[in-house]
Amino acid sequence: MGRKAQNVRNVRKVEALAMRGIRSLWHRLWGRSEDSADASTPPPLSSVSPAPTRLILGLGNPGPEYAATRHNIGFRVVDVLADRAGGEWARLPSLDALGCRVEIHSESCLLLKPQTFMNRSGEVVRAALQLWPGLRPSADLLVVYDELDLPTGRLRLRPRGGSGGHRGIANILDELDNKEIARLRVGVGHPGSAAAVVDWVLESFSEEEEATLLPELLARAADSIETAIREGVTVAMGQFNSV
Asked: CA–CA distance from 140 to each of 20, 134, 201 (Å)?
């Protein structure tokens, strides 16, 4: 990598860190993301009633600067589920998340996009389970997130497991003290060097990937979740993990 390209990467990293610091300060002062003050953000929803029977959590970082990054593929998958069901996103202040109520194969599902940043995703899950104590983490929760160790376009469903180094799912497992959490890992590829990982996941997909890989990948990821809800994670694994 040339010195100029490296300097550009360093500037982007500093800008991203500065933006995170601003967001964190805003959240501490006002108890919400600064984006929530924008009229284009979803309206608040004071309650979700009746209680959902399933929670489907997409992981990502809030804010338009992260929307198209590899790290936010979890957000994009739940967006597809919401679009298919004709659902609308709303702010859930009690959870610090965006939520969308949909029905999938007769199950009342709440799609969630935490607004806490990736490494605090577990706070949202814990709050949701406290709000709806009838939900069982090992049976009624499914988490969707990016996976470096899978090529872009590959999916891996699992009913349980460790974090594999992913800070979002790691925080969820820590907050719940439970590894029996179903998860869908969506491959985003690896840059080939550990030193390049942070830049890689915070960069957008290439134009070619967006045009040729992402539409089909997002559709299959949504299909796999719908199958898991209808027929169980084990059946869905057999259909989608080998593709």
From this structure: 32, 9, 28
Q: List the chain pLDDT tens, one digit each, 243 residues.
A: 455 444 434 444 444 454 455 444 434 433 444 444 444 566 666 556 688 999 999 999 999 999 999 999 999 999 999 999 999 999 999 999 999 999 999 999 999 999 999 999 999 999 999 999 999 999 999 999 999 999 999 999 999 999 999 999 999 999 999 999 999 999 999 999 999 999 999 999 999 999 999 999 999 999 999 999 999 999 999 999 976
Q: Is 26 found in the same domain as 101?
A: no
Instruction: Specify whether 3 is located in the same domain as 99.
Output: no
Residue 60 CA to residue 188 CA, distance in Å, equals 13
Length of the chain: 243
**Whether the Cβ atoms of residue 73 and residue 200 lie closer than 8 Å to each other:** no
**Same-domain status, 27 and 136:** no
Count up the domains in the chain and report the number. 2
**Which CATH number belongs to the domain containing residue 173 in this structure?**
3.40.50.1470
User: Residues 11, 101: one domain?
Assistant: no
Is 71 designated active site? yes
Active-site pick, 27, 71, 105, 190? 71
Give the residue numbers spanning the domain of 16: 1-32
